[in-house]
């Protein structure tokens, strides 16, 4: 199945999620290829889009066409289709459009507009507001998303839930606000209980994580972005992040660079982070260029093992350029730091660590780690 985006898709997600379905204007339904025509100003194109996806092996949305997606789309169960792109939901988040199935290609060079400004302004007034993810791949296998742009997502741009063999390549993400209310939680990619995910050759300008990975066998390379990583948020849940490589990453004006974050305290879940490599990061004006954030006050429910911070250079905004903060009771083991070349904005660089014995040729920069 192939979805070719060579147009601008406008997601009017704040409109009624249960608007009355208009008539359909799908050309050649039931044939190998269908072409969609917009119904017109204020009309919902969701039903005709769904009909085309179910009936045609290739769905084309012309470059001059803007579709208005005002009701939820459930596109699971698709097989061997070539389509023209879009959005979904998860856990305490929601999704406006769900895409799933086997052998799916999303491409075409077009733009998916999440129409996030209304959501940024509304969220500033109500922090409990649930906002829709722009694109969710749900239980999808063998998926390629490439050569598209996504702008102004209400919350996460991309979410891969229980997927396998998923690749994102040459994707540009940008979240920007035209008011004083900036984008919030507009992660580039979030994955959950997925396996074998590639994120490569992409540019991300957003208001939160570049890629948050709660999955196994993840490869991230050649990105320009801001980013961090978190695990173990939900009580009663055991999650695994294993075999993750992030290499050749350029970051600037970001809060965090190469980061592992684990939730701690009461009412959170547990898990294991194992065999993680951050390599070849170039960072400029990053608050925390190298960081493990596991709460140094009391034991986390998550174990961190076999981690490598290799060949990381650049500047921080403050004096601390690296902080490996593990929780007590041996929650971290085999943490390696090699070829770190980091400088503060001014003064002497500080390398700090807690509750861990570091290895690697840059371990001496940290001195003796504090015990809490």
How many beta-strand runs? 26
Specify the helix fraction band.
under 10%
| Alpha-carbon Rg, integer | 22 Å
- What overall geometry do the principal axes of the alpha carbons give? elongated
* Percentage of residues in strands: over 45%
The main β sheet shows up as: 16 strands, parallel
Structural class: mainly beta
The helix/strand series, from N terminus to C terminus, equals: EEEEHEEEEEEHEEEEEEEEEEEEEEEE
Unreliably modeled segments? 4-30, 83-90
- Determine the mean pLDDT: 83
In DSSP terms, counting alpha (H) and pi (I) runs of 4 or more, how many helices? 2
Distance between the amino and carboxyl termini: 54 Å
What does this structure look like?
The protein is mainly beta and 372 residues long. Helices cover 5% and strands 53% of the residues. The chain contains 2 helices and 26 strands. It has helices at 46-55, 117-125, and strands at residues 2-5, 8-11, 26-27, 33-36, 58-61, 66-69, 73-83, 94-95, 97-107, 111-113, 132-133, 135-138, 141-151, 158-161, 164-174, 189-205, 211-224, 230-231, 238-252, 256-262, 270-286, 288-293, 302-316, 320-325, 332-343, 350-354. The protein has a 16-stranded parallel β-sheet that branches. Strands 18-20-22-24-26 form a 5-stranded parallel β-sheet, with no helix packed on it.
